[in-house]
Design brief:
The protein has 322 residues and is α/β, with parallel strands linked by helices. 34% of the residues lie in helices and 14% in strands. Bound molecules: (2R)-2,3-dihydroxypropanoic acid.
Length: 322
Amino acid sequence: MKPKVYVTRMVPQAGIDLLKEECEVEVNPEDRPLTREELLHNIKGKDGVLCLLTDRIDAEVYDTVPEIKGFANYAVGYDNIDVEEATRRGIPISNTPDVLTDATAEMAWALLFAVSRRVVESDSHMRSGQWPGWGPLQFLGGDLSGKTLGIVGAGRIGTAMALKSSGFKMEVLYYDTQSNPKLESSLNARKVELSELLAKSDFVSVHTPLLEETRHLFTLDTFKKMKPTAYLINTSRGPVIKEADLYTALQEEYIAGAGLDVYENEPELTPGMEKLKNIVITPHTASATVGARTAMATKAARNLLAMLKSQKAPDCVNPEVY
Ligand code: DGY
């Protein structure tokens, strides 16, 4: 008998096709996250689940599927999953690293350009039909070449973001718990304390995973340490930034602007944020290229197939279970 798999929301077909070769596959037919009740109900009796960052996977979920062979998360971040509890119960969990690294780093650059060169604001101005013609003081933005880029969290995506700066001859600083020899040798990047990075960077790009230590790493105090001309970019996880404080910092112009792809309470925005002119906001789409999302789907499927055969999943985040 084929193993039974549940997919909590439609992902690119290539992943579904891979699963279908070996499993009975049920996919949430609605293009929206499952409610908690639906999640708990629909995964009952399944051998494996392909889940998303919008699904909270915790002890209550594990209780519902005591025989489950594993959960494959369709994301590199897995803060939606209680991995510690899964490990205690011997349940493997996987993620989708590498295949979205460039797409996410590119989006960080897209936000950086868009906010510092006021692309969205200028676009709206043009569409309004109010442009009076060229003017020397119109839409002045931030300078980029030769400026300082501060990377907070120099893992796979932070490293890729930093490496893409080489054409702009930027000075690169990074803050991480670990040294990054690749950044140091190829860009002459310097590992510094967060306070130094904040004080010296013209652009601060956030790439940390969401952990207890990184939750609200950025608060009003942090923004006050940044240059008033600096821009903040976040493509990691919303709760790394205390969003209400960021709103104040942007409104009071403690910093020049922000490019955001992630939010503290998705899909909600801090009220008033949508009216700020000095931000560019995108709907958690940093990995949303056809190539990256397709590769994420096949990667998640391959991980789940391995788990169903009781083999080590290639991207298992809790290998202690084996
Ligand atoms: C991830 O993979 O963690 C992103 O947030 C979604 O692609």
